[in-house]
Design goal:
The chain is an alpha+beta fold and 764 residues long. Helix 10 packs parallel to helix 17 and helix 13 packs parallel to helix 14. About 1% of the residues have low confidence. The chain contains 18 helices and 30 strands.
């Protein structure tokens, strides 16, 4: 059947309720007699926890429970955070529900309170007393690795993870180089800054099952919560809600374990929603990185060697830091053909805010460094930056730095040229400002690591009236992860979209689809749904062929009908076929499982071969105006070009690219999280600035459809890749405008003005 729904920008099934305000998010749910939860947190960065006194809080009328570490059945959980495979113990992390014996970071949870009102819960927290013996804080990730530095956690030398890439001989490579550039690049913490703070509601059933209705990207966390409570996995149930922004933060456990403990202790419903300040001050951030790069090229513009040392600050607990570090390591050399590569990367523990998953998952950090190096080399060699990149792009059939030979299209030349030409003719700046343009390319993975046995399941049922039901445990974070399943079913089975009912995110009643992370859901749940739909379609076509006395290869499914392709008037209704199957006792439902591509588990910290199912490639071009007197940057134009494989819903795809681009603009120019000795100084959006509508121009999106993805219909994942490439494109444009290059993000007006003031006279 030709595309009828797939490839069309049909409105998402949740668009109406969202636009009308009728859609319910986690904080909208209530239950009679519910209590309100509150977290009591440490106000020091590092200390021995000698004791916690809760008597005064417990005696406050209206307080139903105060919980400390001693009350938690399994307070110290050795968790892999939803992952299933380890490499040398690097991916196993400690999840400590409440502080016990020590405090590792400012804001670490020490106690939980459940009371009859939010104010009472807050008042009870103020009555809790702690006895602390301060310890010297470790706040610098580079210094934390030095011998003699105080050990923050369980890892020696505070190194939570260490990965390597080794290809060729870098010493020989640099000996062949005519030009060598070195640079140290620093990228900051970044907050997810979603509209919906962490929120949930939990209650206990008559049989002791703990139900948690929560905003989460990972309903599989029900297993960890069950283990915290020492309950069977079957006694904890997640009911996901619509998510008001996640961007990776809601991949980790947020409020679920606290809610479960309080509901388990009180046997009453308990609700817990963070304030904006709590969310900004205490939840996980994007990893800050320090990246030391050395890159060599010949005078004819060929890259010959790259050496890099990446150091990320994972904070007081490793959380997902090893996984983020691995992704950054794989991305460290970018999509370039470099025969000699040596990369060492480290995730280091400090007494600072925990860092974990954020859109892009390590790739934006590495991308800023390697694209900055490429730009510097192009200038020294006197080559056009676009041409220099084109001379070095990885080509189909060539190997990444890990040695994986990539056999799919890598259309970076076309993407970069389309992005650059999309800027149009060069105009002129106004008011004495300087005009500049920049380009950058990047790659972002989709799907979890190939040495993980990643699976997703989806269930489809046809009703006798020709409508359909989909059950799939996919959390929808707003990117259409659920909606696209409806489009697949409508396309394959001829059921109108308005007659499809979707059930998602119930850990006990929907087939588990895995995490909405790693840009994996389109590939995983999309393929599982397509597999189930194709099995049902086969049954429908066989029965229709019998009814019409026509071979099934001559039949096509159209809207509500199955027709003979050569004679569209000859056919049978979908309802009639379904009822015939039902009357003969045939199953009208299918549950299918899709298994991701799988490779061997790495034998060591040296990353070799295929690490990801696939990559999405893209390019950004940007035009800016810079005021040399104030350092202010105005973005005039942004063009984003991506190979998406197949745009199953172009409007959703464009929205993801635009959203990722704007988030990247914030990363590049605005979002400056001030942290002093481990304490965040930006507790609201008045201090922590994110882009607004007046800061970002219209974004031109160019979609290339190579059909080469491993998702359904040849689609590639596009949720996270748009974060990769925009920051260096803007920095390159700023340098083009005023002749200064900033090596640490965000590029604030103060940094630009200082760099201009220090620029040697006569240098552009």
């Amino acid at each position: 059947m030709k595309d009828r729904v797939i490839g069309q920008s049909v409105p998402k099934y949740d668009a109406g309720p969202k636009a009308s305000g009728l859609l319910q998010y986690a904080d909208d749910f209530t239950l009679p007699g519910m209590l309100y939860g509150k977290v009591f947190r440490a106000k020091v960065q590092a200390a021995i926890l000698l004791g916690v006194r809760t008597e005064r809080a417990e005696q406050l009328p209206g307080v139903h429970a105060v919980i400390t570490a001693k009350d938690v059945p399994n307070n110290n959980l050795r968790a892999r955070f939803g992952q299933s495979t380890d490499v040398g113990g690097q991916f196993e992390g400690l999840y400590r529900v409440l502080a016990e014996k020590e405090v590792r970071y400012y804001g670490e949870p020490i106690a939980l309170v459940a009371a009859e009102s939010p104010d009472l819960a807050e008042q009870a927290c103020q009555l809790i007393e702690v006895d602390l013996q301060p310890l010297p804080g470790v706040f610098d990730s580079v210094g934390a690795m030095e011998p003699g530095s105080r050990q923050v956690g369980e890892k020696p030398n505070n190194i939570a993870s260490h990965f390597k890439i080794r290809q060729g001989d870098v010493d020989q490579g640099f000996a062949q180089a005519d030009v060598i550039v070195e640079g140290t690049y620093r990228v900051p913490y970044q907050d997810h800054a979603y509209l919906e703070p962490e929120s949930g509601l939990a209650w206990s059933d008559d049989d002791g099952t703990i139900n948690i209705r929560v905003s989460s990207q990972v309903i599989e966390h029900f297993r960890e919560v069950a283990e915290i409570l020492n309950l069977p996995h079957s006694k904890v149930r997640y009911l996901g809600t619509w998510i008001g922004g996640g961007f990776g933060r809601k991949e980790d456990i947020t409020v679920e374990s606290y809610l479960a403990l309080l509901a388990w202790k009180t046997r009453k419903p308990v609700k817990l929603t963070y304030t904006r300040a709590e969310s900004l001050l205490y939840h996980c951030k994007r990893h800050p990185f320090q990246m030391e790069y050395k890159t060599g090229a010949t005078k004819d513009g060929k890259l010959v060697a790259l050496q890099a040392r990446l150091i990320s600050d994972c904070g007081a607990y490793s959380a997902l830091s090893p996984w983020v570090l691995l992704y950054a390591t794989v991305n460290a050399a970018g999509p370039y053909q470099i025969p000699n590569v040596k990369v060492d990367s480290y995730a280091v523990m400090t007494n600072t805010a925990i860092t974990s998953a954020f859109r892009g998952f390590g790739a934006p950090q590495a991308n800023f460094a390697y694209e900055s190096q490429i730009q510097k080399l192009a200038h020294i060699l006197g080559l056009d930056p676009l041409e220099f990149r084109e001379r070095n792009y990885l080509q189909t059939g060539e190997a990444f730095a890990t040695g994986w030979i990539y056999e799919r299209p890598i259309p970076l030349t076309e993407l970069a040229q389309k992005a650059w030409s999309g800027l149009g003719p060069l105009g002129s700046a106004e008011g004495g400002r300087k005009l500049g343009r920049g380009v950058a390319i990047g790659m972002g993975s989709y799907g979890r690591l190939t040495f993980l046995h990643d699976t997703s399941r989806s269930y489809i049922k046809l009703e006798l009236d020709g409508s359909a039901i989909i059950r799939c445990g996919v959390p929808d974070v707003g990117g259409g992860q659920g909606h696209i399943l409806c489009q697949i079913v409508a396309q394959e089975l001829g059921v109108p979209l308005e007659r499809i009912k979707l059930h998602i995110t119930d850990s006990q009643l929907t087939p588990l689809a895995g995490t909405t992370t790693a840009t994996r859901q389109l590939m995983m749940s999309g393929n599982a749904t397509l597999k189930a739909a194709n099995e049902l379609k086969k049954r429908l076509l066989i029965k229709a062929g019998q009814l019409l006395n026509v071979p099934i290869e001559n039949l096509i499914i159209t809207l509500n009908r199955i027709e003979v392709e050569s004679s569209r008037k000859e056919g049978v209704s979908l309802v009639e076929v379904i009822n015939r199957l039902s009357g003969e006792g045939e199953e009208l439902f299918v549950e299918a499982q899709f298994n991701a591509p799988f490779t061997d588990i790495p034998a060591s910290e040296v990353l070799q071969g295929q690490t990801h199912p696939d990559f999405t490639f893209g390019a950004y071009a940007a035009e800016v105006e810079v005021d040399e007197q104030t350092g202010q940057v105005q973005i005039n134009k942004i063009v984003a070009a991506f190979d998406v494989g197949k745009a199953l819903n172009p409007a959703i795809v464009e929205g993801q690219i635009e959203g990722g681009c704007i988030q990247g603009v914030g990363y590049a120019l605005f979002e400056d999280m001030a942290i002093h000795n481990g304490v965040i100084q930006t507790p609201s959006f008045a201090e922590y600035l994110i882009p607004t509508a007046v800061d970002v121009p219209d974004i031109t999106v160019i979609l290339l459809e190579s059909g080469s993805g491993v998702g359904p219909y040849g689609a590639k994942g596009i949720g996270e890749p748009p974060m990769v490439g925009i920051a260096p494109a803007l920095v390159n444009a700023i340098e083009d405008a005023v002749g200064v290059r900033i090596a640490d993000l965000p590029v604030t007006p103060e940094k630009i003005r200082m760099a201009i003031a220090q620029k040697p006279e006569g240098k552009r």
